[in-house]
Amino acid sequence: MENMNFVLSGLGGQGILFMTKLLAQTAVNRGLKIMAAETHGMAQRGGSVVSHLRIGDVAGSLVRAGSAHVLLALDESEAYRSIPFLARGGRLYVNAPPDAVVREEVRPYLDRMEITCRLFPASETARDSGSPMASNLALLGFFAAFQNGPIPSRELRQTIDQVSPDRFREINLKVFDLGFERGSAKKEKR
């Protein structure tokens, strides 16, 4: 397997570290090597949280600028701050309202770097599922619908089932599934 680098970004309390845990545990369950690191400012007060996950034979835990294959962002502003991590041909998944568009000043860079950008209303999807705090799982489900690398959607779902506390297991799976369904529907329309 080729190495794969993920950067996850958002604000304190959005569940960035839980998303990283799910991706990392899925990779470990598949027998893959991982290294992870997290950085946060005032995470407890809604400040920036950035998590790095590297899968494969890697020498360090931090993803260098220009080397992330995937960026998952739970906050639109944090997505723009983290774009420099993406490699040419990288994939960007952003929690954004359904009517959102990529900022005009960013579009030329994304085009030049051949970065695929998918905006998805993960917060709205989580609310639709009855769990407004689970936008992280909605975005993860959406991402899983497009995934063709070392983290298959079926195995990611199994990890959610495995690590979710009993009282949240059913709703976590429901939110993930709804994000996956909406991603699959969007993928088929292309």
CATH superfamily: Pyruvate-ferredoxin oxidoreductase, PFOR, domain III
Q: Describe the strand arrangement of the main beta sheet, using strand numbers.
A: 2-3-1-4-5-6
Provide the CATH top-level class: Alpha Beta
Encode the helix/strand succession as letters. EHEEEHEHEHHHH
Number of domains: 1
Distance between the termini: 28 Å
Structural class: alpha/beta
Strand content: 15-25%
3D structure, described in words:
- About 45% of the residues lie in helices and about 25% in strands.
- The two termini are about 30 Å apart.
- The radius of gyration is 15 Å and the shape is globular.
- Helix 1 crosses helix 6, helix 5 (about 135-145) crosses helix 7 (about 165-190) and helix 6 packs antiparallel against helix 7 (about 165-190).
- The model has no long low-confidence stretch (mean pLDDT about 90).
- A six-stranded mixed sheet has the order 2-3-1-4-5-6, with helices on both faces.
- It is built from seven helices and six strands, in the order E-H-E-E-E-H-E-H-E-H-H-H-H.
- Helix 3 (about 105-110) links the parallel strand 5 (about 85-95) and strand 6 (about 115-120).
- It has one domain (about 5-190): Pyruvate-ferredoxin oxidoreductase, PFOR, domain III (Pyruvate-ferredoxin Oxidoreductase, domain 3, 3-Layer(aba) Sandwich).
- It has about 190 residues and is an alpha/beta fold.
